[in-house]
Amino acid sequence: MNQNHSIKVGYVYSRELLSVSNQLPPVKGRAILVHQLIGAYHLFDNCYRVQVDQPLDENQLRKFHSIEFLNYLRQISIDSDKMDDDDENDQFGLNYDCPPFSDMFKTIGYLAASSIAAANAIISGQCSIVLNWFGGWHHGHRDEASGFCYTNDIVFAILTFLENGFDKILYIDLDLHHGNGVEQAFVHTNKVLCLSLHKYEFGFFPDTGHINDIGLFRGKYHSINMPLRNGINDDQYIEIFDKIINRLIPKYQPQVIICQCGADGLSGDRMKSFNLTSRTYLHCIEKLLEIRLPLLILGGGGYHHTNTAKLWTLITAKVFGQKLNPNIPDHEFFLYYGPDYDLSITESMLPNENDPQEYNEKLKIILANIEKIP
Ligand SMILES: [Zn+2]
């Protein structure tokens, strides 16, 4: 099935993982749409399934989360009346974007386990590329749920690579929002380099990811933040991405790349911010594939559910070297894709606030900082 037989692709899936992901309040019903569309194109029929049979237990979750946070999640799982305690909920970020729900403990255990399993499939040499559309929760903190994220599976994946001797891990975040949870977890280390391209505007969540945030102490120059404005289009995004990657890869020489493919930068997303189509994401993934390093591809944001399903299906096909018929195949959710029943995602009339002179100045700063990576 693969064009190159030396490349083995893994697809993270288990029925339990799909079930808990599909119940996540901020993206309820999204996981099944994604999985069924990929299945309708028969993309994972012959690939290696990365199984996730067990959620992490408390000991394993403590590698990142605080005891207080985990205790509270467990209490809610046992006693659902606790869910109405707004003060305690607030303390752990369980409000607005992240409402509490009864299966939280098990759910975060499965989500974290999914990206650990993906990392292990690469570490063991079983796969050189792994797709985990259930992962990508980049805002999760040690002791707080935040921005639709109850845990941070990416941090767990990176910790797994670190524990297994990897010491040059490149994390790339294509989500509309800044990858703050991941950056914060590794801001002091030079073993992980976090690159995030995101919308940066006063008052826009999470309000971090300024171009001058470049990492701290030993981690200096190991955080790269490219702030963007509303309405960015494919051509501009691709130009910026390529310029950074062309300079960064030879300089940093990573051993493994993790790419979060949050789909909320797509035109038509509920966030109404960027004006990207699948062309941008497919270009970025193709560029990363050309580097021929182990690659872990993750999901993330994406609040126009059918567009998110289309994008992640297209990326899955790209990884398998398959060309897809643009007509959505008949399957359980076929009617969701009306009126055109087509895989394409088109640009909107959203005004573009990105001035080439301004972003080129920022790029100059970023490229100069890349040269300073020791
Ligand atoms: Zn996002």
From TrEMBL:
Substrate binds at D97, G147, Y303. InterPro entries: HDAC_I/II, HDACs, His_deacetylse_dom, His_deacetylse_dom_sf, Ureohydrolase_dom_sf. One of its GO terms (cellular component) is cytoplasm. It is an enzyme of class 3 (hydrolase). Its main location: nucleus. One of its GO terms (biological process) is heterochromatin formation. This is Histone deacetylase 8. Its cofactor is a divalent metal cation. Belongs to the histone deacetylase family. HD type 1 subfamily. The keyword Transcription regulation applies. The active site is at H139. It is found in: Chromosome; Cytoplasm; Nucleus. Keywords: Chromatin regulator, Chromosome, Cytoplasm, Hydrolase, Metal-binding, Nucleus, Repressor, Transcription, Transcription regulation. A divalent metal cation binds at D175, H177, D264. It comes from Dermatophagoides farinae. It catalyses: N(6)-(2E)-butenoyl-L-lysyl-[protein] + H2O = (2E)-2-butenoate + L-lysyl-[protein]; N(6)-acetyl-L-lysyl-[protein] + H2O = L-lysyl-[protein] + acetate; N(6)-acetyl-L-lysyl-[histone] + H2O = L-lysyl-[histone] + acetate. Residues 34-317 form the Histone deacetylase domain. The lineage of its organism: Eukaryota, Metazoa, Ecdysozoa, Arthropoda, Chelicerata. Its EC number is 3.5.1.98. GO terms for molecular function: histone deacetylase activity, hydrolytic mechanism; metal ion binding. It comes from the Eukaryota. It holds the Pfam family Hist_deacetyl.
